[in-house]
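In the design runs reported in the main text, the only information available to the sequence generator was the tokenized backbone. The following block is the verbatim input for one such run; it is reproduced so that readers can re-run the procedure and compare outputs position by position.
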């Protein structure tokens, strides 16, 4: 039994957080995975996992081994990908982190379309609104919707992204259309606690500098979809991602305000760790998304 097979078994068990879950995911028996991990520990002369009938955790040595082993396996897979790419045979598994907002919105169809177009690539999608540690948690890449901060990651812009201040025509008629962003401080607002601004909404001032307006209202919720539903119910003004608000704006159920005052430095990005070789499957995936968004936004 070679070390790489045992190493892959160990990584699968850690990522799935248990032998049973790993066995179901990769199609191997729980007993076989347990055997591989035990042989790996015997070969290393160190305990990697603390396991009882009810608990599962990594030892300190296990943490160290998992981090380095994951990097080694990714490099090996990247090398295999580069060879496959030269022969036109791109396959494998992509472990992707994406925000729930992306997958739940119409643009989430891009992931489905990719899977349909590339049946030899398994797209392992993990939906999480937090910024995962790609290296530590073994992700090939992540989709992030934000203004990209400086980091050690490589980023490629997939598509532009803006936010909209929205409200129903009925609420605007009832409360009056605010003429300046500052007037929102005295109006009911819906706060998406999953967003980066929370209750301090940013706008471009007259001098081009960013100003913030403190807002409050009847609902605070960590979901732009729920915030949109609250806005549609006439409960307040809301800041919504353009791809969430667009269908309701086009149908006339929501009206936008201060479009010219909204921040324009955000985007939808694919981010991935620095590596000597970018896996061909990742490059194919990112190229697909870039083209998908171009086609969707084409007139």
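Verbatim output:
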């Amino acid at each position: 039994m070679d070390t790489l097979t045992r190493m892959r078994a160990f990584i699968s068990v850690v990522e799935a957080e248990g032998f049973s879950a790993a066995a179901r995911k990769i199609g191997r028996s729980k007993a076989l995975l347990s055997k591989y991990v035990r042989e790996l520990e015997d070969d290393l002369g160190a305990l990697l996992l603390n396991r009882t009938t009810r608990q599962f955790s990594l030892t300190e040595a296990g943490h160290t081994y998992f981090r380095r082993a994951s990097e080694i396996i990714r490099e090996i897979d990247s090398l295999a990908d580069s060879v496959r790419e030269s022969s036109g045979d791109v396959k494998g598994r992509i472990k992707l982190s994406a925000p729930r907002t992306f997958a739940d919105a119409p643009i989430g169809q891009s992931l489905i379309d990719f899977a349909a177009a590339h049946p030899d690539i398994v797209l392992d999608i993990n939906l999480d609104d937090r910024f995962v540690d790609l290296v530590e948690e073994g992700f090939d890449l992540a989709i992030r919707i934000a203004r990209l901060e400086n980091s050690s990651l490589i980023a490629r812009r997939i598509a532009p992204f803006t936010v909209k201040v929205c409200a129903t025509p009925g609420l605007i008629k009832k409360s009056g259309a605010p003429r300046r962003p500052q007037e929102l401080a005295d109006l009911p607002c819906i706060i998406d606690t999953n967003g980066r601004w929370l209750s301090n909404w940013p706008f471009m001032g007259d001098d081009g500098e960013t100003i913030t307006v403190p807002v409050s209202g009847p609902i605070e919720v960590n979901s732009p979809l729920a915030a949109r539903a609250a806005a549609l119910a006439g409960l307040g003004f809301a800041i919504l991602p353009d791809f969430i608000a667009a269908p309701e704006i086009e149908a006339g159920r929501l009206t936008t305000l201060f479009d010219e005052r909204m921040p324009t430095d955000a985007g939808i990005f694919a981010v991935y760790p620095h590596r000597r070789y970018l896996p061909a499957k990742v490059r194919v995936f990112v190229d697909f998304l870039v083209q998908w968004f171009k086609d969707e936004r084409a007139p």
